[in-house]
Specification:
Layout: H1 10-21, E1 28-32, H2 39-53, E2 58-60, H3 68-80, E3 85-89, H4 96-108, H5 119-125, H6 134-141, H7 145-150, H8 161-165, H9 168-172, H10 176-186, H11 193-200, H12 204-216, H13 228-237, H14 240-257, H15 262-265, H16 276-290, H17 294-303, H18 309-321, H19 325-338, H20 341-357, H21 361-370, H22 374-386, H23 402-419, H24 422-436, H25 449-459, H26 463-475, H27 480-497, H28 501-514, H29 520-536, H30 540-556, H31 564-576, H32 580-596, H33 601-617, H34 621-633, H35 639-655, H36 661-673, H37 677-690, H38 694-708, H39 719-728, H40 733-743, H41 748-755, H42 759-773, H43 778-789
Parallel strand pairs: 1-3, 2-3
Helix pairs in contact: 1-2, 3-4, 5-6, 10-12, 10-13, 11-12, 14-16, 16-17, 17-18, 18-19, 18-20, 19-20, 20-21, 21-22, 22-23, 23-24, 23-25, 24-25, 25-26, 25-27, 26-27, 27-28, 27-29, 28-29, 29-30, 29-31, 30-31, 31-32, 31-33, 33-34, 33-35, 34-35, 35-36, 35-37, 36-37, 36-38, 37-38, 40-43, 41-42
């Protein structure tokens, strides 16, 4: 019985085969490789073959550690030519005597160079239970056989502490300069000869020798950087004071040369190191981290010693960009209260931006007006319009920078939305968004031009444009984490308006999974989405459950122009729940705000449209007529105004019992054309169940289903299939549709609202199903339906 042989590369196997075939032949061979590459394994196999053949051979391992006399003796054996000599050594240290020995061996035959394992070889040497981790093991070890063996017992993609501890023997015997080089390599500067020279206090030739000594350990990858597992081991096993000292020195050198320091400084967080050099390094690293990781930037600035006003403002801005508005407001307020004239304006700007996200737009605007920057002046205009004040005088002149230019366009766009065409306002805001896209998450904003553009687009029926600008903003992370939630909520709002309630719901679920509390401005939109989805699903239970949150959200976020969409949803919900008095003061505030701005149609029409539906739900015909009249007054201002006004008149006619199929269909299709898909289908469906004309009903139901994106005619079944369903005991398509909703817990009225049929029709469907299935009770019926529907 033979034992399993170790895995060797092809060149080593050729040598062994040669020895096994002619063991009496004289073999003179050098085996050269860094530590861990399997030189010792090759020698053991050579010794085994010679031993089994009964032939003597001189086999020497680690010849690089031998003295000159011993190396000279080995060379003499090689030069004799009649002795089998196999010598293994590392490429460093390389004394004259070792070089002479290597030269003598090389004249006989090239040295054997064991190589690292390939991915396939790593998979082959791992036990069967660990082969699923072969890629991870190869990535960590670079295929170095010794390190692969240390990870052979892994059960998950994590390197255990005991494996890292096994590297202590590899590190402790190294020269101090090599250890310092490995610490520099762990810090990521293994290829920076200039930094290494200054760190080691050596010229380039001497640095090269230290690097070669490092390579000889086997801890480096072919590109000169540390293998991942070796990097983790160096970090874990090196003395903390040495590691900190090396990083401090490297950071100092990088600062002098103007190079990046973030990767060098990051591990120093929490170590308590200090001093002017370290403070400067932390501040430089914070500047680097701000655009990609503002939370890290804020932590780095917090590590600096005594904070100055300038430092506090920078930390406040970083905190705000990371979403920590509490810290941002606290730090900014400290600077404002301290009376530092030079930095009070910058602190006020940060506080203003944080307050905008908190829903305090009026206070935010005042702080922006107090700040002297051109950006704040532009943001103040956006805030003024949002709180019902028409800006006086000319708009602020923007300096030629990306942020200032975009802020100026934002101000221009919201002003244009008051009197000019919606097209002009939308165009200006889209241009502002495009101007800021290259900045991505590296800017701190009270609102993004993309969000404002989306609001204008939603208020004017330009949903494709709203989608486009939001998608681009999300792709570029415009405004960072503070604005991503807002962009996603507005994207979900578009889905809800179009009747894609599942997509809107998915966004809310995804935001909840993040587990991060929403700021008031985002929360009011999230609650309004919850309310809107529940209302469109006729889900009265969720509507009631969420209504208290809606009332709280409105209290926490004072009414401003940019929250009219959620306010409109709350108006319809309050009517459905017969709780209008709690929302009434906020609706009065909204109408007063509109009057102060001159009743701009772009902002007024959607609010009147929501008011119309709230009045219809509450059966307040006179109030509904007032809203319809207000919409009619705006009819000539835009295509959207005209379509909504026409639809409002059609709604009132339908409620009065006057159903003109041509008029309703034209009005519904007009609504659909301006993005109000759900409202369009609802109008056609409600008209269908209110007409006594059978032909008109069928036509309007088909229209409703078409506008809802469902197959036309799904509810109409010819006599034959119905009879067939009765005979077989199966449900028709329409009966199955009704049954699924009833089993799902909806009332007959809710099912009727969902399918654009009357509650009485739903009752007839269920009675027919019950009779066909032979059920004697509702419980039995529901039980059978659950089995049928799976």
């Amino acid at each position: 019985m033979t034992s399993e042989r170790p895995l060797l590369d092809p060149s080593a196997r050729e040598v062994l085969a040669e020895v096994a075939a002619a063991p009496e032949a004289v073999l003179r061979l050098g085996v050269l490789a860094p530590g861990g590459y399997g030189k010792t394994t090759v020698l053991r196999e050579v010794e085994r073959v010679y031993r089994e053949a009964g032939v003597e051979a001189t086999v020497v391992d680690d010849a690089h550690l031998l003295g000159d006399a011993e190396l000279a003796s080995l060379r003499a054996l090689v030069e004799r030519g009649d002795v089998r000599v196999v010598v293994a050594y590392r490429p460093w240290p390389r004394s004259r005597a070792l070089a002479a020995l290597a030269e003598s061996l090389g004249r006989v035959r090239p040295a054997l160079l064991p190589s690292a394992f390939t991915r396939e070889q790593v998979r082959a040497v791992l036990p069967a239970a660990g082969r699923g981790l072969a890629d991870f093991v190869h990535q960590q070890t670079g295929g170095v056989p010794r390190f692969v063996a240390r990870l052979a017992g892994l059960t998950s993609a994590d390197v255990p502490a005991e494996v890292l501890a096994s590297f202590r023997a590899d590190l402790d015997w190294l020269e101090p300069e090599v250890q310092k080089f490995l610490l520099a390599a762990e810090a990521g500067v293994a290829l920076r000869l200039d930094l290494l020279g200054a760190l080691l206090d050596k010229d380039s030739d001497a640095v090269g020798e230290v690097i070669e000594a490092g390579r000889a350990t086997g801890l480096l990858a072919p590109d000169g950087t540390l293998l991942p597992i070796a990097r983790a081991a160096v970090a874990a096993l090196s003395r903390t004071d040495r590691r900190i000292a090396v990083r401090q020195r490297l950071a100092e050198l990088q600062l002098r040369s103007g190079g990046p320091v973030l990767d060098l400084v990051r591990p120093l967080l929490g170590t308590g190191v200090g001093g002017p050099v370290v403070a400067a390094a932390f501040q430089a690293a914070a500047r680097e981290a701000l655009s990609t990781d503002p939370a890290l930037s804020a932590r780095l600035l917090a590590e600096v010693g005594t904070p100055t006003a300038s430092l506090a403002v920078r930390r406040a801005a970083a905190s705000a960009m990371s979403g920590d508005l509490d810290a941002a407001l606290r730090l900014a307020d400290q600077v404002i209260s301290a009376g530092d004239q030079e930095h009070r304006g910058a602190a006020a700007e940060v506080a203003a931006i944080a307050l905008a996200h908190r829903g305090q737009l009026a206070r935010s605007t005042e702080l922006h007006r107090w700040s002297p920057s051109a950006t704040s002046a532009a943001f103040a205009v956006v805030g003024q319009v949002g709180t019902g004040r028409v800006p006086s005088g000319t708009l602020p002149v923007a300096p030629p920078t990306m942020l200032d230019g975009a802020a100026s366009l934002m101000a221009q766009g919201v002003v244009e939305s008051l009197g000019g065409s919606s097209t002009a306002a939308l165009s200006t805001l889209v241009r502002a968004s495009g101007l800021l896209e290259p900045a991505g998450q590296a800017v701190l904003l009270p609102d993004t031009p993309a969000a404002l553009a989306a609001l204008v687009a939603l208020h004017s029926g330009e949903l494709p444009m709203a989608e486009s600008v939001l998608d681009r903003a999300l792709a570029s992370s415009l405004g960072g984490v503070l604005m991503t939630v807002r962009h996603r909520l507005l994207r979900a709002w578009i889905a809800m308006v179009r009747g894609n309630l599942g997509q809107a719901r998915e966004t809310l679920v995804a935001l909840r999974k993040v587990g991060r509390p929403l700021e008031p401005r985002d929360w009011i939109f999230a609650v309004a989405l919850e309310i809107g989805i529940a209302r469109r699903n006729s889900d009265l239970a969720t509507l009631k459950r969420t209504w208290e949150q809606a009332c709280e959200a409105v209290l926490r976020h004072p009414v401003d122009l940019y929250t009219f969409l959620p306010l409109g949803e709350f108006a319809a919900a309050s009517a459905r729940l017969r709780d209008q008095h709690r929302l009434a003061p906020h609706l009065v505030t909204a109408r007063n705000l509109l009057r102060q701005l001159g009743d701009p149609p772009l902002w007024a029409v959607p609010l009147h449209w929501s008011g119309l539906h709230a009045a219809i739900i509450a059966e307040e015909t006179a109030v509904a007529e007032e809203h319809a009249a207000a919409l009619a007054a705006c009819r000539d201002r835009s295509r959207y105004c005209a379509r909504v006004s026409t639809a409002a008149e059609s709604w009132l006619d339908v409620l009065a019992g006057k159903v003109d199929a041509d008029q309703v269909e034209a009005a519904a299709k007009g609504l659909h054309a301006v993005g109000q898909w759900w409202d369009a289908a609802r109008l056609a469906g409600q008209a269908a169940i209110r007409t006594s004309d059978r032909q008109a009903m069928v036509r309007l139901l088909d229209c409703a289903r078409l506008l809802q994106g469902r197959p036309v005619g799904v509810g109409r079944k010819p006599a034959e299939p119905v009879a067939e369903a009765s005979e077989t005991g199966k449900l028709s398509d329409r009966e199955r549709e009704v049954a699924e909703l009833v089993v799902g817990g909806l009332t007959y009225k809710q099912v009727g609202d969902r399918l654009f049929i009357s509650a009485k029709t739903v009752e007839h469907h269920m009675a027919r199903i019950r009779q066909r299935l032979g059920c004697t009770s509702r419980a039995e019926l529901l039980d059978q339906l659950r089995q049928i529907l799976g």
